[in-house]
Protein 1
Amino acid sequence: MITTKWNVENVDNIKEHPAIKEAAMWIREGEVIAFPTETVYGLGADACSNKAIEKIFEAKGRPSDNPLIVHIANKDQLAQAAFSWNETAERLMERFWPGPLTIILPKTERIAERTTAGLASVGVRMPDHPVALALIEASGLPLAAPSANRSGKPSPTIGEHVYQDLNGRIKGIIDGGATGVGLESTVVEVTGETVTILRPGGITKAQLETVVSEVKWDRALLESEQAPKSPGMKYTHYAPDAPLYLIEGNAAFFQSRIDEFQGEGKTVGVLVSEELASQLQADEVKSLGSSLQVEGVAQKLYHQLRAFDETEVDVILGETYPIDGMGEALMNRLLKAAGNRVIAENNERD
Ligand code: TXA
Ligand code: MG
């Protein structure tokens, strides 16, 4: 398949752009198109068509028991995807849409079985990106879209990542430049007035608490390999080619781990804040910016994980961050990328 690449970075009047019209035409024909959102690039197709959704799974090489998020451009489209929503969900939408919040709701008949992997519920969000909104609106359809990476790879934060993973496997890529948040949306379930976070992401728990009285946080669910409520959490995700270990300890301890791996003849890469980078000696150092700017660290994470695939490192050692605010989503993704391998000062490597 020939993959068309449209560059729409910085264009004025995106809604009228020929790329959007052509891409929307392909979507209506049941094809798959990658597009930017404010979180990561998505791989979009008609959420109402089993055949179109099948093409997403084929392109990604992803197990099809994993439900996809449905993207809408306006509140009118919500009723096409979701059967009902309560007042708490309504408040979340008012406050956080468009934005990186996915809300699990009972699905309508229209949403294809393949989109929700047979579940009676559907995850819906309205992305905060002009290109995404223009494409959804022009196609006139709710778009199912997982992150636009091959299964297991870090999610794409620039058009080039999508091209590397999916060129020849999909009809088109709309390149809108770098995404903003850099990590995926927060996924929540709403029961009465209680909101439960199923996947941490671009909207923090503290932000949710500004509009709802009770936000639950099942860490056991998030960290377990078998997360029943959010099936996507159980697969190894976001991983670079070389194994990643997270190091918990001070700079001296971190350096001693580098030295140990090098002593085994390994080429060692480190993925750390700029503060720690200045204190370490390794074969390859990639910085995530200042550890005081956790949003900046989150934004750079997938980009730098992918950048290690262009190097010859045998192993990557990464820093850990406080589990607070955006640090929650950041550590969730780091632990997944590391397959939960953490080397702490008083722990053995597993
Ligand atoms: O930021 C994002 O959310 C990106 C961009 C492209 O919008 N999309 C994304 O999609 O991350 P995906 O398919 O990679 O992740 C979907 C997540 C998974 O953890 C999945 O299990 C959960 O949402 N999910 C989707 N529908 C669900 C449902 N009905 N019940 C429970 N979890 C659901
Ligand atoms: Mg993904």
Protein 2
Amino acid sequence: MSFNIDNFIMGLPKTELHLHLEGSLEPAQMFEFAKRNNVEIPYKTIDEVKQAYEFTQLQDFLNIYYTGMNVLLKEQDFFDLTAAYLNRVATDNTKHVEVFFDPQGHTNRGIAFETAVTGIHNALTQVGSELGISFKLIICFLRHLDEASAINTLKDAIKFKHLIDGVGLDSSELGHPPSKFVNVFKMARDEGFKLVAHAGEEGPVEYIYEALDLLNIDRIDHGNSCMNDPKLVARIAKEKIALTVCPLSNTKLCVVDDMKNHPLKKMLDAGIVATINSDDPAYFGGYMNDNYSAVANALNLSKADLVQLAKNGFTGSFLSPEEINKHLIAIDQYAENYAN
Ligand code: ADE
Ligand code: ZN
């Protein structure tokens, strides 16, 4: 019997290290929350919503994404959103998640930071433990806003430090380089938060250098444009700086023109700790296994590549070395016992 990629992917123990909770808001759930909260949305039917999800660049998506999150008002909404996401990725055999949310997307609409963080964290704790999924929680600063707003958000986060593991940087990349956020990242580092940043998704390779050298980040979100710079590729591989790669996001936002041209295999071959993630699955057409399958089939990835990708998810995570080791052993056992 020949090796069945999709079947092998299904049982692989996985992580998700790049997931915006607001990007897991499914159209049906958007209608449900809009109804119960009496919020107007610019769509009449689920089909109409799905038709709107045609993007040629990041900003097309972001405009729709910020409108979508307007239906989230109460702690219960944030809880339900997070619980639904966890239940969905549990079916993909996801064992550990490091999820983002955008506090300013809510505080700027008058929703308290506490409302969002409490709902999300309660679901991660309660539903995560029922499903056997561990987690880290990361807040992202919206880079199209100024650094003063990010600093105010960090001050909110410090009040809830016991619930938050890291800070990140997302939203419109072009024109908003990491250098705009040097002070707030320094403050966050001093507070003991882990640091990540979206860099090199649409932006140039210089933004990746800035994220590494000026923000001192621990992990790069996307990072695709590093592939234009062999010296940077060698550095990222040598320093074991993980990249959270998002295949379906990349094709949906036209960062990559065709999945067959996705740089993931080249990243692996260069020794980069590349990981597979879904970014905004409700908007980009797939969760963890969909992302693995799409890129694995397009690039003809081998069983060894898939094992490496799954392992990278754990080694690139913020879990402790002991926890990582336990998962790596489970992946090896799965791969050894898997009958082709
Ligand atoms: N916010 C949600 N998804 C994002 C992405 N792919 N890039 C930048 N900001 C985002
Ligand atoms: Zn993202």
Protein 3
Amino acid sequence: MQEKLPGIQYELDVPMRSILIAPDELNARVLDLGRQVSDTYRGRLPLLISILKGGVVFLTDLMRAVTIPHEIDFLQVSSYEGGTKTTGTVRILSDLGSNIAGRDVLIVEDIIDTGLTLTYLLKQLEIRQPRSLRVCALLSKQEARQVHVPIDFLGFEIPNVFVVGYGLDYQEKYRNLPYIGVLDL
Ligand code: IMP
Ligand code: MG
């Protein structure tokens, strides 16, 4: 798991206002989620689908906390087009490599904000007739929700602020930070 290395200094071109979730809190929660996922799917072979690019850091940590056999795949969508507000339009930029019909599918998302991206994804994946379809999200901003979405496994509920780090970006940057923080934009 990605620990903050002693003495490592991240170079930021925008100052960090505050750190919302520290690396050790993220690690502890991800281990817990891995245990929950393992317990839920024991005896099955779930397919963990990471939503690129934001969900990739979370997936790589989560999969090492999942102790049962499983497979992974990736799906790239775009909804933000670089800003800090959702545009409401979701596009599949790169589709899955696997056929999910009859599979136990777990969507691994970085953050559920308005819920529009996930609603679209659930609809698209449901059409392909998976055996089951669940959602694991690291973060949720309940206050920003425009549509209700079911979250089966959740890391943290956070306030309605724009966050970066641990996979989440602002204009494609800051995904490398080992914590969840708020930039001083
Ligand atoms: P939604 O469709 O509004 O729920 O947006 C979901 C997607 O927007 C997430 O998968 C993220 O890629 C992005 N997003 C939402 N909130 C944030 C944030 O605070 N920081 C970085 N990306 C975000
Ligand atoms: Mg994302």
Protein 4
Amino acid sequence: MTIFAPRVFSGVQPTGNLHLGNYLGAIVRFVALQDTHECLYCVVDLHAITVWQDPAELKRQIREVTAAFIAAGIDPKAHIVFNQSQVSAHAELAWIFNCVARMGWLNRMTQFKEKAGKDRENASVGLFAYPNLMSADILAYKATHVPVGEDQKQHLELARDTAAKFNHDYAETIAALGHGDAFFPLPEPLIQGPATRVMSLRDGTKKMSKSDPSDYSRINLTDDADGIAQKVRKAKTDPEPLPSEPKGLEGRPEADNLVGIYAALAGTSRDQVLAEHGGAQFSAFKPLLAELAVEKLAPIAGEMRRLLADPAYIDGVLGDGAERAAAIADPILADVKDVVGLLASRRR
Ligand code: AMP
Ligand code: TRP
């Protein structure tokens, strides 16, 4: 059995309005994993352009996500922070995976169905092939662990299927070229914590999302203290007080969501929050939640503003990250080409 060294990879799209769901479902987890793993965190701009992006806005948003990573506590020196399109291995490996993954697998992807909507004929080819690019992101580094929110689970399963099919289809050359019995690891999703699926503040049955037309549905990482407090105050709830156990949250999606958010921000569990606040009315609980959200998020917004005032610094971080990322991915891509039967790249 080939053993793969543990390595973490994850990505966030620079599509504007980074929100509390991105933060609690993904970025907080990214920060925590730095203590125990070698980590690569990528601003996935090639994923972003699968739907229309205004060019000037896209550049701004690439820098904004980078600033959010750093402001939240990701250390770009100890780990690698970079921009997808600056490392060509992603696009190259994605093409090879377009030839490994099957139409039937991609046809089952629920995110494509949601994003393409009714007018599927008019969706970009890139939007359909998106999961293959995501597999390439991860496997270009032979990453073993992928922290994501709940909504990415199906894409991770496809990445595992693609890695397994590649290992199987090319098993003979993989062994002959000295790579043992598996070329790629089967990457594991890390979907953990009380906020793997943060819901809209206006509707507890809908995911908090960048694309929701109502700004009151989400707390943006760039919101100021007043904005955060106001959105929490206006969040939809029900008239019942908080239960003292998680079972009492069943059938109460808005209450469940606010308790999950509180737990994630406080670094505890739903159980703990309800043990402390069970019986409280929302009129009492919301101000506490607002205060906690402001305490945790406002400093990040401030630090993001400071970083964004110096785009040259951000571009320097991304440039350095891309070089270090390419140093890992390029030799792996060269091995992939060798396995598939493509000739080695000419020297540049
Ligand atoms: P995206 O902005 O779509 O690139 O997502 C970046 C990361 O945030 C991914 O790991 C998503 O799974 C996660 N994420 C996005 N929305 C939510 C949400 N509402 N709750 C929890 N995690 C989320
Ligand atoms: N598809 C992910 C999302 O929309 C972003 C992403 C792209 C990603 N490549 C990745 C996440 C690789 C984890 C690993 O949230």
